[in-house]
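Reviewer comment 2.1 asked that we show a complete input and output for one of the modelled complexes. We chose the 5-hydroxymethyl-3,4-dihydroxypiperidine case, as it is the one discussed in the main text.
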Amino acid sequence: MRRRHVLTLAAVGAVAAGCRPDDPPPRAESGPAASPAPTLGPGGLAFPQGFAWGASTSAYQVEGAAAEDGRGPSVWDTFSHQAGRTRGGDTGDVAADHYHRVYEDLDLMKDLGLRSYRFSISWSRVLPDGRGALNAKGLDFYHRLVDGLLARGITPVATLFHWDTPQALQDKGGWEQRDCAQWFADYAQQMFYSLGDKVATWLTLNEPKTVVLLGYTTGVHAPGKRDRRAADVAGHHLLLGHGLAVRAFRGTNRKGRIGAALNLSPVYPADNSAAAARQAKIVDGEENRRWLDPVLLGRYPEDWLAAQPAGAPVRAAIRDGDAALIGERSDLLGVQYYNPIHVTAQGGRVVKHPTTQASWLEVYPDGLYDILTRVKRDYGDIPLTVTENGMPTTNDVQDDDRIAFLRDHLAAAHRAIGAGVRLEGFHVWSLLDNFEWAEGYSQRWGLIRVDPQTRDRRRKASAEWYRGVIARNGVQP
Ligand code: IFM
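Response of the prediction step:
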C-alpha cells in the first residue's frame, strides 16, 4: 500500500488559534458546551472520540457580495445572469449574504457545536482575473473566516474549487485548456502560502463529475456547454489540476493534509441478469472508477479508457505521465454521497427508493455504507471524511424529514466505521439555505433557515437535533 501521511484530527484541531483584532470575541455560550455532556440512551450509536462533526457550504452558494472588494466574476456570475439559466432567474449576487454576516454564522456554528466547517474559496475573489496578484481585500475575508473558526475551536476545511471558475480564465478556454490545470495549481499554491499556517485540511476539487455532466454535457450548469467530447477533456484537465495542486502543496512543506472531494454513487444492477451486471460495471466506471482510480491509484481504468471512441479528444488530452501526476499521494478523500444508481440490462436507470424535492436524490442510506466500505476494499485505508450528505425539503423549520434522513445516513456511517472504515468526519450539506445552482433558492438544504427576503437566520429542527448528536457524540436511532 502507498504511504499515507497521517495527521490526526486532534492535531488538525490543535492548529494555533489566531484571533484578529476585528473579530468580535465569540459569544458567551449557555448551551450544551457549558452543561454536563448529554449521554446516549440505550441503543445509541456512539462515534469515535474526536469525530469531526461538520457542515459544508460553498463560496458562490452562500457568500454574496459578488461585486465587492475587488472580486472578479466567475462563470456562475455570468451564467446565472443569462435569461432562462436558473429557476426564477435567481443569482448568487446576495446568496445567504455570508460575506457580511460571517460573525453571525460563526456564532451559529459554535452554537451547534460544530467541530469542522468545510467552505470553499472563491478563486475570483482572491484572484479577480484568475491569475497574477492577490486581491488583499478578498483574501482578508478568508482570514476573517478562518481566524473566527479557530477562535471558536472549529477546524477549517478549505475547498479550492467548487465550480466557480474565474470568468477571465473561461474566456481563455477554461478547463478545456490544458493550461487551466496549471492556473489552478498556481492559485492553489498562493492559497497554501497565504492560509496554510492556519488551514490544515485542503480539498482540491469539489465533484469534478458534476462539472463534466452538468457544466459541459447537459449544460444546465455553468459554463453551459453541451459537448460530450469537450466535457471529457475538461474532466481530465480538472484531475490534472488536482494532481498539480497536490504536488504544489508538497512543495510548500506546509503541515496538513490534502485530497479531493468526489461525489460517489454505488451502482447496482437493477435485476439479476448478467446483462444488467455488465451495464452496471460500465456505469460504475463513469460514476466512480474514472475519478477514484486516477486520484488514488494513479491510472485510469482500462475498461473506461477502452470505451473512449477512437479519435475522441480525451485520448489525446491524456498524455504520458498525466495519470501518475493525478495520483500524487493524497492524504484523505472527501466522499459526497447522495444517491445510489440502479442500472437495467439495457443500460437505463431505474429509481427503486423514495426521492426528495430534488428528484435525482433517491434516498438509500445503505448506499453510504456500501460506498464507504467499497472505497476501503478497493483503494486501501485512506482516511475518509463525508464532505457532503443531506437533502432539500419543503418543510420550512420543522424539517423532520431531514432529521430522519441524516439519522439514517449517520447510522450507515456508524456501521461502516464498525466494519473498519477510517471515517473521520461527517459534514452535513448544508449549514445554510443557499443558492442551489440551477434550482436557485427553490430548494432549501440548510440546517439553518435563511429568510429569502431579509436573510435573517433561524435554526431549524434539524439544527437542534444535530446539536444534540454532536453533544452526545452519537446518534439515537
Ligand atoms: O449544492 C450542491 C453542492 O454544491 C455540491 N453537491 C451537491 C449539493 C446539492 O445539490
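The mean pLDDT is 94. We note this here for comparison with the apo prediction described in Section 3.2.
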